[in-house]
Amino acid sequence: MPDAEIGVFGGSGFSELLPGAAEVVVETPYGPPSAPITVGEVGGRRVAFLPRHGRRHEIPPHMINYRANIAAMEQLGVRRILGPCAAGSLQPRVRPGDFVVCDQYVDRTSGRRETFYDGPETVHISMAEPYCPTLRDVVLRAARDMELPLHERGTVVVIQGPRFSTRAESLWFRSQGWQVINMTQYPECALAREREICYVNISLITDYDVGGEGDPTVTPVTAAEVVRIFRENLNRLRDLIFRVIPAIPRERTCICATALQQARV
Length: 265
Known about the structure:
Elements: E1 6-8, E2 22-24, E3 37-42, E4 45-49, H1 66-75, E5 80-89, E6 99-100, E7 104-108, H2 133-145, E8 150-151, E9 155-159, H3 167-175, E10 180-182, H4 185-194, E11 198-207, H5 223-232, H6 234-247
Parallel strand pairs: 1-4, 1-5, 5-11, 6-8, 7-9, 9-10
Antiparallel strand pairs: 2-3, 3-4, 5-10, 6-11
Helix pairs in contact: 1-4, 2-6
């Protein structure tokens, strides 16, 4: 089985640019991942690409087998994961087309398989700092060099989906001061930490969720609008990821690498 050291949860538009890429079918104890994984090389680094929603976006966020996706990456040797995603804005200053490198999340999902440790082994993983600080620094430096519209911190609230928020829900999230809303960051991020895999979020803002407060010209989000804005910005996101990959340090000295040492009971 081909090996890789860096993983990307992305879709079409990424794997096509990998020279000499090979498609790999990976089986895991948690079932099949969302799709076969494409393994290739970027900047001298072995990279694995996996579309979290499947090849044709046929898997809704609440039905993604997050455990299988993370386990498949681990089986290929991946120790760092980049998690780009489309996301909505909850604050006026965070605009469609902006990039947010989140440093916190709030989980509002339900019923998802959210841990590898269902017993008899019990693990209480620390998520005080859920995103890898080393990867965040690499992404931020690359985004600054590209002069992207960038927010260097942000809290993403993760909703269950597949529906979008009501106005009341969105107002509540906004009133808490949270910046970003998304449907896939949890448990993807937490599961990576349980496997001592570094993980970073790159949120591409596609909409204003339920619309602009006090601005009738800004309409509530639709799936079609999310897809349109994401496609318009796909090249910038892809360029950012392809710049980040070769800049990732080979040695891991971050909190992620030893996350299980104090977590087992």
